[in-house]
Amino acid sequence: MTLTNSAFRLDHKGIAFTVRPSDQSGFYLYQFRIAGRDIQGKVETRLPGMAVRRARQAIDRKLRAQAAS
Length: 69
What we know:
The protein is α+β, with helices and mostly antiparallel strands.
């Protein structure tokens, strides 16, 4: 996986999400949609793979919270 200055699209458990480098050095932005709600976040890391992992963890958290309610 190679991340450059552009956003890229991935899928995790049927949820499409994007991760892209932030304007700030060492940060990545992620975005996904669950149950009609757009969810965005910011991850502090210099490792692109770690940014993807944290976005997937955020999706897992939201899915668990949705299942519990």
